[in-house]
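Progress against Task 2.4 (sequence-to-structure conversion) is shown through the following example record, which the project officer requested during the mid-term review.
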Amino acid sequence: MLKKVVQVSFLLIGGTLGVIFLPHLFTLFSFTSTPWIDNPYVSAILGAAIIYLLSLFLTEPIVNFIKWMEERLLKAPIFDLLFGTIGLIVGLSVAFLVSFGLGSIQIPIITSVLPILLSIILGYLGFQVGFKKREEFFHALQSTKNSGSKKKDVEDINAQAKGKLYKVLDTSVIIDGRIADISETGFLEGVLVVPQFVLTELQHIADSSDTLKRTKGRRGLDVLKRMQTDDGPNIMITDEDFSGVPEVDMKLVHLAKSMGGLVVTNDFNLNKVADLHGVSVLNINDLANAVKPVVIPGEDMYVVIVKDGKEHNQGVAYLDDGTMIVVEDGKFHIGNAIDVIVTSVLQTSAGRMIFAKLKNGKAAKAN
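Structure tokens generated for the chain above:
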């Protein structure tokens, strides 16, 4: 495509040059008495043909040069191009003003050649100055903006903070129910946004023929009703929808991005999708893991062994928050409350796991 554009440009340039210069050549060779030769159409065709022959040798180098320039410009930082272009415009403007002043001097070389040289030299110098002094220009503009628009900056910060107060709830976090307890504590400030498409999904789940799904859906609706009546963050129901987006998760991401808010969820996959789209996420599971009691290796604990572990002679116990404790040689104490010593703590994506051993170091023997 680029090659054809260059070739067409050569044809147009050749036709134009033919119309301008070939009549003088015809006059020189006494072709003026031949009307079918000395006319603008023949001049344009001959000029285009001559330049087209030259283009057979020049097109490829010109195309390569344009591609090279395009590649360099695409790789250049935007601020380098911006300030370089500003410098080029200033240089050409100065050259035009100087050339305009020199036009009153009736010396052919000054009025014809010097403006071209000034345009080339001052344009080049302007581009170089703008390009190499971009950091100084940028800092000067930034300092001027900061000193002259403090009020605007405060308003922007307040607007941004206001946007962050919108927290869009997904279906899973509503069904989970812990969001209601968190909002009651006052730690979750701002406006909780419940999209209509989430309510529709909850209603479909509540009307499901599956007993478990139906129970979850009804619990989610009860949680929303409880949050509307209790003191806490405001609940806002929005009808905004994205008809071109079929998935509910993507609708949530688009809604949060349009409102400048956050997504509240406990869905790991939605968390990752929102991160990819640059939308901040509040994950209830991450909060639950963060507020779990800190356990240090060497600390004593009093636990009840409830079942076997996966490995040989291991027993499993649980803390009140559901944290699993794997006790070495705890298999022989299933159903008993024993003292253990923490040996290590493992933090996984599924939660925290504690490894421990018997405090007295002696395991009961199997019958």
